[in-house]
Amino acid sequence: xxxxxxxxxxxxxxxxxxxxxxxxxxxxxxxxxxxxxxxxxxxxxxxxxxxxxxxxxxxxxxxxxxxxxxxxxxxxxxxxxxxxxxxxxxxxxxxxxxxxxxxxxxxxxxxxxxxxxxxxxxxxxxxxxxxxxxxxxxxxxxxxxxxxxxxxxxxxxxxxxxxxxxxxxxxxxxxxxxxxxxxxxxxxxxxxxxxxxxxxxxxxxxxxxxxxxxxxxxxxxxxxxxxxxxxxxxxxxxxxxxxxxxxxxxxxxxxx
Length: 256
Prior knowledge:
Elements: E1 4-6, H1 9-15, E2 19-21, E3 24-26, H2 34-46, E4 50-52, E5 57-59, H3 65-74, E6 76-78, H4 80-84, H5 91-101, E7 108-112, H6 118-125, H7 128-131, E8 133-138, H8 141-151, E9 154-157, E10 169-174, H9 182-192, E11 194-205, H10 214-226, E12 227-233, E13 248-255
Parallel strand pairs: 7-8, 7-10, 8-9, 10-11
Antiparallel strand pairs: 1-6, 2-3, 3-5, 4-5, 11-13, 12-13
Helix pairs in contact: 1-2, 5-6, 9-10
């Protein structure tokens, strides 16, 4: 299914009347036909918005002004989740990952494929963006810059798989893409970036626990030879609010 949605003329007229306040997008104060509202909601959800009934607005993880303008100019919108296999880390899971990582002041930390920075925001909540060195890597320049500016962390604008810093990180906390076993490939590269005695905590598709193919076998063999590691099952539906019902696990790996 295509990740690009063509915007219908009636929907375009509504988008042109929307108002953005910080990360909130307000529809025009007119009674919308149910069919038109459904089409508008579909476009705004593809942009990353989520309807909040209490404040009567679509809430975004960051200022949606540029996304809205791009949609109006081009007449189409890219569904971020379908295009990039982007499913934000639930905040409770980010907190669990940080507890598992047992971070200490002065450590060098990486969040690859940082998205809107849900893991970084949890690091900031615990003070680690101030007493540690935190790097993020993100392919989408606007997203990465916004996270870096908000939390005062270092940003590399790149596909993580082309990022080759060497074994320099004490901790890596990640929620990589899952499509076509991308999580396997990303975790393998994360191990290349992890110091001896370093800890990696990553969300992965539950497929790592039951798939039988060369890619999975090679990663499991590498984990077995280089790390003390385990998989922790996440509850079913943990990512439902992020837009997917895929079953997931957390990988904990401490390098020898």
